[in-house]
Amino acid sequence: MGTGLITLINRLILIAAFLCSTSASAEQVIKLASTTSTENSGLFKFLLPKFEKATKIKVRVIAAGTGQAIRIGRNGDADVLIVHHPPSEERFVAEGFGLKRHKLMYNDLVIVGPKTDSAKIRGVEEATIAFSKIASSMQLFASRGDESGTHLAEKEIWKRAQLNPQRTRWYLSLGAGMGSTLNIAVAMDTYALTDRASWAAFRNKKNHTILMEGDKKLFNQYSVIAINKKKHGHVKYDLVKKFTNWLLSNDGQNAIRNFRINGKQMFFPNANREQ
Fold first, then answer.
1. Residues 62, 161: one domain?
2. Rounded CA separation 60/262 (Å)
């Protein structure tokens, strides 16, 4: 093989390597740490391709409970959060780890349980009363026990009911995600607290159904928070800004509004663009 041909081949190899590295570096990707409900319900599979098509920015989702998602953000392992526990979110921003907290959408929490309803909570209008009836009848209750937004909301209900179910035989603290918790609840015929979208998407309902809903205190607000670049210099704030702007825009809000499970709207957009 001639020297000139070898030189040409080497140049072509270098050019190909350069083009590959340029393409890889040009790929625009952000990491989103979010709740399990937004992922497991199918919302992100519906929502994110629309954003990616509009902006060419890819979003990699880290699905975790709100508590874990906030820890991921605190450690700088995500660029942006979508979470659902306002007190934790406000503390995260106050400590300087997150920028402004933007309301994004809401749904609600519901109490599910076996249709036999031994605790007699069907028709009860307040979650605290339902929890009190579960406790007084010592019916099994499956808790996520993972410091997720749903678990934190559950703990607040027990507190308002002036009850401490820890260390009782009927209270099962699982340290698990929503899907696993619901599977155990169904398998063991227990009650559980879940967000409506996760329940609608859950396919193993068997003899379980929604028994208590409609309490205003079960309102479930979701927010989007960009990670503070001053805390973690590698955060892709310019790309995150495009993501949050799209979510809060008419296009993003309409996409959230149009997401359905079995024909029913699961999330209700309520972005306040003045935040």
1. no
2. 26
Per-residue pLDDT reduced to its tens digit, 219-268: 999 999 999 999 999 999 999 999 999 999 999 999 999 999 999 999 99
Exposed e or buried b per residue across 149-178, where buried means at least 16 C-beta atoms within 10 angstroms of its C-beta? bbbbbbbebbeebebebeeeeebbebebbb
Largest CA distance in the chain: 90
Structure tokens at 97: 């780890």
Say yes or no to pLDDT of 95 above 50. Answer: yes
Residues 239, 258 within the same domain: yes
* Domain span including residue 158: 108-218
**CATH code assigned at 197:** 3.40.190.10
Q: How many domains is the chain partitioned into structurally?
A: 2
Output the six-digit token pair for 28: 């625009």
